[in-house]
Design goal:
GO terms for molecular function: cytosine transmembrane transporter activity. The chain crosses the membrane at residues 61-82, 108-132, 152-170, 182-207, 267-290, 310-331, 352-372, 378-395, 416-435, 441-461. Keywords: Membrane, Transmembrane, Transmembrane helix. This protein is an all-alpha fold. It has a single domain, classed as Hydantoin permease (Orthogonal Bundle), CATH 1.10.4160.10. It is 71% helix and 0% strand. α3 crosses α12 (265-288), α8 packs antiparallel against α15 (317-345) and α18 (375-403) packs parallel to α21. It starts with a helix and ends in a 10-residue tail after the last helix.
């Protein structure tokens, strides 16, 4: 039997995506595959919302520009030296890797939380695309404070977009990657065009004029807090905490030939989370000068953040197309990840059908604008919840042998729940979240402490409980 035949059998057993097998050598991909995916995913729908939302926090020019430089660098380093390193060593999905350490029962709860949170994020991107599709129909756009659908037109548009995105994601990694590679240059060009046009509309002809107009920022909009340099650094670092320090992108980088493919995330961080955020913020700055926005501000209300009209006002129909594609390139891999999470809960269902299920949940979430309008808060929360579990994988990989713990302890002893993992997750996430709520501390300030505490607790509790390989298993 040839290696190709063996690989084909493995792929068939794994539903085509190797959910419970290491990715074979013949299926590994070069860095170019990841470059397009990350550039597309992160120069995408979220950027059309996050950029304007930064303005609502009243952030200064220095704090935004320099803060994003630092925060995005820290994110790239996290992907490169944590996620990609572990991914190419084991070549397992996050969910199967966790199952070996945490136990099947505990992973079911984690996967459910992870899958639902990813669906909500994808739903926010469906919302973003819907604001663009609704422009030709003169659809009423959701307000910053809206939570419920505001019209039948809105509902129909969201359902159609959600169905298309779900079908693309359900076709697997190859289709998701190809879609991102095709769409990302168009989206990047649109962001550049939007930024240039917005600068002209604002009458900015030099960096000095830009600095003078933005300057020290402003007072935050009603319901928002004032962002400082450290707010920007830590929020941008942990905007994708679930993917890097939370290890979700083990499922993506398991296909990489080398860990150096982790550097491709810089395309997403500096094209998307830098240039695109600033360009989108400039679009919103143009809108804030309109009589409509000024009237709302005068009434103490926050003006609408609707990416579709903002882009259309800058670059016309091309802006509508770009926003639709941008929503797709974020929602597609996010639904794909959610599908992998649900696959671990429902292993008898094919990858296709669990991804369709994830797409259905995402589409339902997309009907409710609150997920997009509160994106800064939601992104911080979902990264904070999931990151401490990623610490378990990272600390076992880098420090487990030195700490003298048994690797893949749940698998070795056939445990349903590894209590060391459960306690580390609950104590770190629950304790620091309670601190955030009771003391009014910005949640992104606490993500790294929660991650570190979770990893340390896991090592300590594991060392207390583990037995040596070959010794009698306890309980």
């Amino acid at each position: 039997m040839t290696q190709f035949d063996i690989d084909e059998q493995i792929e068939e057993l794994a539903g085509g995506e190797f959910e419970r097998q290491p990715v074979p050598q013949s299926r590994l991909k070069s860095w170019k595959s990841f470059l397009g995916m990350y550039a597309g995913e992160h120069a995408a729908g979220t950027e059309f919302v996050i950029g304007p939302l930064f303005l609502t926090t009243g952030v200064s020019a220095f704090d935004l520009i320099i803060g994003l430089l630092v925060g995005n660098l820290l994110a790239v380093l996290s992907w490169r030296y944590l996620t990609a390193e572990i991914a190419v060593k084991h070549r397992l999905t996050l969910y199967y890797h966790l199952e070996k350490i945490c136990g099947k029962k505990l992973v079911v709860g984690y996967n459910l939380a992870n899958g639902i949170l990813f669906c909500f994020l994808a739903g926010a991107m469906i919302t973003v695309s819907a604001t663009a599709v609704g422009v030709p129909f003169d659809m009423a756009m959701p307000k910053l404070t809206d939570t419920m659908p505001n019209s039948l037109t809105w509902v129909l548009i969201v359902l159609v977009i959600g169905a298309v995105i779900s079908l693309i994601a359900a076709r697997g990694y190859e289709t998701v990657s190809k879609a991102a590679n095709w769409m990302s240059p168009v989206i990047v060009l649109a962001f550049v065009a939007c930024g240039v046009v917005a600068l002209g509309q604002l009458g900015i002809g030099s960096f000095g004029e830009f600095w003078e107009i933005w300057g020290e920022g402003s007072e935050p909009f009603p319901g928002q807090i004032k962002y400082t340099f450290w707010h920007v650094v830590l929020w941008s670092w942990f905007a994708n905490a679930a993917m890097h320090i939370g290890m979700s992108d083990l499922s993506v980088f398991r296909f990489a030939k080398k860990a150096s493919s982790g550097w491709t995330t810089a395309a997403g961080m500096y094209v998307g989370h830098y240039m695109a955020w600033i360009a989108a913020a400039l679009l919103y700055a143009v809108y804030l000068r309109t009589p409509e926005a000024q009237e709302l501000l005068g009434l103490g209300q926050a003006p609408t953040v609707a990416p579709g009209p903002l882009a259309y006002n800058a670059i016309g129909v091309f802006g509508i197309i770009a926003v639709v594609l941008a929503g797709w390139t974020t929602a597609n891999p996010t639904i794909y990840r959610a599908g992998l999470a649900f696959q671990a809960i429902l292993p008898k269902l094919s990858t296709f059908w669990v991804t369709i299920l994830a797409g259905g949940v995402a589409t339902a979430a997309g009907l409710f604008p609150a997920f997009a309008m509160k994106l800064l808060d939601f992104v911080a929360l979902y990264g904070f919840i999931l990151a401490p579990v990623g610490a378990v994988i990272a600390f076992e990989h880098f420090f487990g042998k030195r700490a003298g713990i048994v690797p893949n302890y749940a698998e070795y002893h056939n445990l349903g729940i590894n209590r060391a993992v459960l306690l580390a997750w609950i104590i770190s996430a629950g304790g620091f979240y309670l601190l955030s709520v009771t003391q009014g501390i910005f949640l992104s300030f606490l993500t790294l402490p929660a991650w570190i505490l979770s990893g340390l607790l896991f090592l300590w509790l594991s060392r207390m409980a583990h037995v040596k390989p070959g010794a009698a298993a306890a309980g």
